[in-house]
Amino acid sequence: MSNSALGLLAGLLLALAAITGGFTGFILAILLGGVGLAIGAHRDGRIDLGAVLHNRGRG
Q1: pLDDT band at 42, cuts 50/70/90?
Q2: CA distance 7 to 40
Q3: pTM for the model
Q4: Is the model more confident about 52 or about 31?
Q5: Residues 6+ apart with CB under 8 A from 34
Q6: What does the CA dihedral 12, 13, 15, 16 come to, rounded to 10 degrees?
Q7: Which of 9, 17, 32, 42 could form a disulfide with 49 if both were Cys (CB 3.0 to 4.6 A apart)?
Q8: Residue 42: which residues within 8 A CB-CB, separation 6 or more?
Q9: pLDDT of residue 57
Q10: How far separated are the first and last CA of the chain, in Å rounded?
């Protein structure tokens, strides 16, 4: 199992723990699943979150 799939699974499990039900729970599951997928893809080297989250000095 790749880190991306493992991250997606972890995000979905966290979402299940936080769900209170209804449409809000569904949106929360999608959001946390996406975050888990992004972290897993970063660990696999498929995407570079450092480039996205890098704080550029302005001045």
Answers
A1: confident
A2: 5
A3: 0.61
A4: 31
A5: 11
A6: 120
A7: 42
A8: 48, 49
A9: 60
A10: 45
- At residue 25, φ and ψ (nearest 5 deg) are -65, -40
Find the DSSP H helices in 1-59.
3-18, 22-44, 49-53
Residues, the chain: 59
Question: What residue segments make up the domains of the chain, in order of their start?
Answer: 3-44
* Alpha carbon separation from 15 to 25, 26, 48, 54, 56 (Å, rounded): 8, 9, 24, 27, 32
pLDDT band at 11 (very low <50, low <70, confident <90, very high): confident
